[in-house]
Design goal:
Elements (H helix, E strand, L loop, with lengths): L2 H13 L2 E7 L1 H4 L7 H17 L3 H6 E7 L5 H9 L9 E5 L11 H12 L5 E5 L7 H9 L2 H7 L5 E4 L1 H5 L4 H4 L3 E2 L12 E2 L6 H15 L6 H9 L8
Parallel strand pairs: 1-2, 1-3, 3-4, 4-5
Antiparallel strand pairs: 6-7
Length: about 240
């Protein structure tokens, strides 16, 4: 059992509850696809803790996940939401997915990094920090790698942080299979034409791979995205992974 899994188990046993916050932009919301990576993580957490505790009710009732995503938000927005109390800070576990929307406001990497540092100091619980996943667009990936991605790598060695490098791990995969969603209305800001493939927002399989990376990097819980989605497609009540 990993130390993080033990922390979750101990919190459930002692407090009978565990509060998990998902924080980020539209990649975190994933409102366009179900199951998305947030939903998958909640499901796996409850199932794994049921095994460890030999009790279904405590994980099912005790694990509460809160969606603090804001579509189109920047690190400046997230910092302000935390500082003004819109996003609470007393979670047992925070999963913060760092976005790339700051490029639209021309925020410098130094300002981006400072926003994140100020935000992270406010949280009292364990933090899992995720980079932006690689897009299926070379220009977007090149720009991210030159600007904000180094901020993630600079923060990763912090002993208080567990990092999940979605950017690097996604590049090991066939991105054409993870980005297939058709954006009917397009996205002028991002350069996506009406009816074009959205190269920034992962599909169902892409979301399952985000869950896999976080589960395996932070919790050492093996996860097979294809197996999980196949079971779900076949109406298996408790999809295996």
């Amino acid at each position: 059992m990993t130390s993080l899994t033990q922390t979750i188990k101990s919190a459930l046993e002692s407090k009978k509850s565990l509060k998990i916050a998902f924080i980020g932009d539209s990649i975190t919301s994933a409102e366009w696809v179900h199951p998305n990576w947030r939903e998958i993580l909640e499901y796996v957490f409850q199932l794994e803790l049921t095994k460890l505790l030999d009790d279904w009710k405590l994980p099912s009732w005790g694990i509460r996940c809160f969606n603090y995503e804001f579509d189109g938000s920047t690190t400046t927005d997230i910092r302000k939401f935390v500082e003004n109390g819109t996003i609470p800070t007393d979670f047992d576990l925070v999963i913060y997915q760092l976005g790339d929307n700051d490029r639209f406001t021309k925020l410098t990497p130094a300002e981006y990094l400072e926003n994140i540092k100020r935000t992270l100091t406010k949280f009292t619980g364990q933090i899992i920090l995720c980079s932006n996943p690689a897009a299926s667009n070379n220009l977007a990936n090149t720009n991210y790698q030159k600007t904000y991605y180094p901020c993630f790598t600079q923060l990763s060695p912090d002993s208080k942080i567990i990092s999940a490098d979605l950017f690097t791990e996604f590049q090991k995969l066939d991105l054409t299979k993870l980005y297939t969603l058709i954006n009917i209305n397009g996205n002028d800001v991002a350069g996506i034409k009406p009816g074009g493939i959205d190269f920034l927002h992962p599909n169902q399989l892409g979301n399952a791979f985000i869950a896999k990376i976080i589960l395996e990097k932070a919790f050492q819980i093996p996860f097979n995205p294809e197996k999980y989605l196949e079971d779900a497609k076949n109406d298996i009540m408790f999809p295996t992974y």
